Amino acid sequence: MKSYRITITLAPLSELECHRALDAINQYWRRPELLSQKPWQGAFILTASAEMEMSVLETERLFGKRLASAIWRRLGRYVKVTVDCVGIESDTNSVLVFDETNYREAMSIR
Q: pTM of the prediction?
């Protein structure tokens, strides 16, 4: 197992969508240890963070892709999803941005 500090940032969201996105995060991943909902340009930015152990069979990119897809399905639309994976026991650091192209690919598969 690999240990990480994961930070997920979503924007732009309505207040209701913040709750829906958090439901998807809780269901797919886990309940965040740190949570922030900040106003931004008439909408909100949601940031959730927690430590986790990731199977050696799962990559940071695969984890982020699955989480972004779960969030998009719950919201029923695109929002930018950024997943920051910082290795706790190593110098591993990955910042993954899931954009509209990723959204179209993920939603066409379903």
A: 0.91
